[in-house]
Design a protein that fits this description.
Elements: H1 2-18, E1 25-26, E2 34-39, E3 45-50, E4 54-59, E5 73-75, E6 85-89, E7 95-100, E8 115-121, E9 127-134, E10 136-139, E11 145-150, E12 153-158, E13 164-169, E14 173-178, E15 184-189, H2 193-196, H3 206-215, E16 218-223, E17 229-232, E18 239-245, E19 251-257, E20 279-285, E21 290-291, E22 297-300, E23 307-310, E24 315-321, E25 328-335, E26 342-349, E27 361-364, E28 369-374, E29 377-382, E30 388-392, H4 400-413, H5 419-426, E31 432-440, E32 444-450, H6 458-469, E33 482-490
Parallel strand pairs: 26-30
Antiparallel strand pairs: 1-29, 2-3, 3-4, 4-5, 6-7, 7-8, 8-9, 10-11, 11-12, 12-13, 14-15, 15-16, 16-17, 18-19, 19-20, 20-21, 20-22, 23-24, 24-25, 25-26, 27-28, 28-29, 31-32, 31-33
């Protein structure tokens, strides 16, 4: 028995050693954090959004991305999209719809804050249509029109001509989604208190009804385009930020967030959250309009949570955030058909309080592989072979000198009265800059390396480099040693 146990351990160890670990790669045109990755329906294209409105399209029909890959095109000329954008391809894959990532709520009302959209030509990357003040948008099956949701209305527009085609007034409408068959419209809306009395959750409890009227939503369904109301979900839900039908129209998947005033975020992009929001991925069973929490519900603390679903393989992936101090961001893969059936977790681990960890971006590649990204690095991860994998994006060992240096920068950047922030404000420096900083001796900055691309404001980057080169860290580095670290400035 003892021999068998030892042999089994050896076989397990050899098997683990033989597994191919994900190899982080750098793409020449990716100098800023990747925030979303979207695969086209035919799997021919991969579309990447980066910070500050950087769009890249890659042709992967002949093989996966590699460090030698070059984009079909890049469009760094668009305005907005500071935090990237969700994206979708038209049914014929000739066009791309990019919707701006919007983490906030509208101030005057507990609802989605309107955002910007762009329609791009896949062949060239040219912007064909753009507008703002939108709550939701999606391609229609004719491949030349959009369904757009705004406050109190849903309308269709030809994005090639810009002409409005049809308008549907829906009181208190927030976001809308049309199924693939094109005959059923789902609408998230701000319901009246009387409606919540009929739903599971608030019922007749006065306190719960008051909370529901302020912070909760309902989703109703309409036959399209007649707009005859066909039903409403059976329970109250939180503020819906995104929703989409599965390809077979069997379920409506949605992402919602709680609205709690005490939840504030110092920096949405890399997760310096003061507290943790409760956000959820749920689905509605279209056979009975019921929220299917018995079979599908996943919570995440990621404000800008990405997700992907493959109807053929039955896989669902979403991003999670384990918090400021934990310094962990994750890609989680689950079985869409089995509740709490976890298939794999890819963890990006940084130092506590790190500024170099971002919301994860990913796309399901096949039935065992996910393309994952955090920051500027991308990897192909086989979750069947490595169901639990951690990538260390920076050294996480105890280092008092490094901790003190980073904490000093954090503190000075948060104080308008610090000499550092006074210098930055005087030069009116704005934007995101990734610096690799080297210090020595009594905290002198020896060198700074910063990558850039076509959209980088080189003048501001150089001004910031000059300021940091003169910056003095209150640390002592041992003789003949240097401390190197990466720091993300978001100004």
């Amino acid at each position: 028995m003892r021999f068998i146990t030892i042999a089994a351990l050896i076989i397990t160890a050899l098997s683990a050693a033989a597994q191919v670990k994900p190899v982080p790669m750098s793409l020449a045109d990716v100098a800023y954090p990747v925030l979303t990755i979207k695969k086209s329906p035919s799997a021919k294209y991969l579309f990447l959004t980066l910070t500050d409105g950087r769009f890249l399209l890659y042709d992967v029909s002949k093989g996966r991305l590699s460090e030698n890959s070059t984009p079909v095109w890049k469009n760094f000329s668009v305005t907005g999209f500071d935090l990237g954008g969700d994206a979708g391809f038209s049914y014929d894959e000739k066009y791309l719809l990019v919707t701006e990532q919007q983490p906030g709520y509208a101030r005057e009302k507990v609802k989605v804050k309107p955002f910007r959209i762009n329609v791009l030509e896949v062949a060239s990357g040219k912007v064909l249509y753009e507008t703002d003040g939108v709550n939701s948008a999606q391609f229609m099956a004719d491949n030349q029109s959009l369904l757009i949701g705004r406050d109190d209305e849903v309308y269709t527009v030809n994005f090639l001509s810009g002409a409005r085609l049809a308008e549907y007034k829906i009181p208190d409408c927030e976001i809308a989604c049309l199924n693939h068959a094109g005959d059923l419209l789902a609408v998230s809306y701000d319901a009246a208190r009387e409606e919540f009395k009929k739903e599971d959750g608030a019922g007749l409890n006065r306190k719960e009804l008051k909370n529901a009227a302020r912070n909760k939503k309902l989703i109703s369904f309409y036959a399209f385009p007649s707009m005859k109301r066909t039903g409403v979900i059976n329970e109250e839900i939180d503020v819906v930020f995104r929703m989409q039908f599965t390809p077979d129209d069997r379920y409506l998947v949605f992402y919602s967030r709680t609205r709690q005033a005490e939840h504030t975020h110092a920096n949405i992009l890399n997760g310096l959250d003061n507290t943790m929001d409760l956000n959820q991925f749920q689905r509605i069973d279209m056979e009975n309009y019921k929220v299917d929490n018995l079979n599908f519900i996943y919570q995440t603390s990621e404000v800008l949570a990405n997700f992907d679903h493959d109807n053929t393989t039955g896989m669902f992936a979403y991003s999670d955030n384990k918090g400021f101090l934990a310094a962990k961001r994750q890609v989680v893969v689950v079985d869409f058909g089995r509740q709490q059936s976890y298939l794999g977790t890819y963890t990006y681990q940084g130092r506590a309080r790190t500024r170099n960890l971002y919301s994860t971006a990913f796309a399901l590649d096949d039935n065992q592989t996910v393309l994952v990204a955090n920051g500027t690095k991308l990897s192909y991860w086989n979750f069947r072979e490595l169901p639990q994998y951690t990538e260390y994006i920076e050294p996480v060992d105890e280092n008092a000198i490094l901790d003190h240096a980073v904490q000093q920068l954090d503190t000075d950047l948060q104080s308008a009265e610090s000499s550092l922030m006074k210098s930055i404000n005087k030069k009116q420096i704005k934007g995101l800059y990734l610096f690799n900083i080297t210090i020595q001796k009594n905290g002198e900055v020896v060198s700074i390396y910063a990558s850039s691309d076509d959209k980088t404001n080189i003048s501001m980057q150089n001004m910031l480099k000059d300021i940091i080169l003169k910056y003095k860290f209150d640390v002592t580095v041992p003789k003949n040693e240097r401390v190197k670290f990466t720091y993300t400035f978001i100004l």
